[in-house]
Amino acid sequence: MTGPSRHLTRCFVAGIVALLPFGGTVLGILWLETTLSESWRAHVPFYFPGLGLLAALVAIYLTGLFVTSFFGRWLWRRVDRWLENLPLGGTL
């Protein structure tokens, strides 16, 4: 590859890799909102638009709270060590 095309390819791939976690988070929140709106609307009297977003924010907060606790840090390190022993898991 020549200089400009190599630069463009490298920047494009780096941009995709950088946006994947953000895109996954957005898609997960949209999925949660859609799922809650379809399944809860008919059965629960307290559904309101944005409940999926609120549930996603609470889930993200509780996950962060768990991961930063003593037991969560210990468990996260154990899972990380376990993944390093898997073929291809160490490269992730």
What does this structure look like?
The chain is an all-alpha fold and 92 residues long. 78% of the residues lie in helices and 0% in strands. The protein has helices spanning 3-40, 51-68, 70-85. The model has no long low-confidence stretch (mean pLDDT 77).
Secondary structure elements and pairings:
Elements: H1 3-40, H2 51-68, H3 70-85
Helix pairs in contact: 1-2, 2-3
What summary fits the major beta sheet?
none
Counting DSSP H or I runs of 4 or more residues, the number of helices is 3
Helix content: over 70%
* Low-pLDDT ranges: none
Q: Bin the strand percentage.
A: under 5%
Question: What is the chain-wise order of helices and strands?
Answer: HHH
Distance N to C terminus = 27 Å
Radius of gyration equals 19 Å
Report the count of strand segments. 0
Mean pLDDT reading: 77
Name the shape in a single word: flat
Structural class assignment = mainly alpha
What's the short version?
With 92 residues, the protein is mostly helical. It has three helices and no strands.
Structural key phrases:
flat; mainly alpha; 92 residues; 3 helices
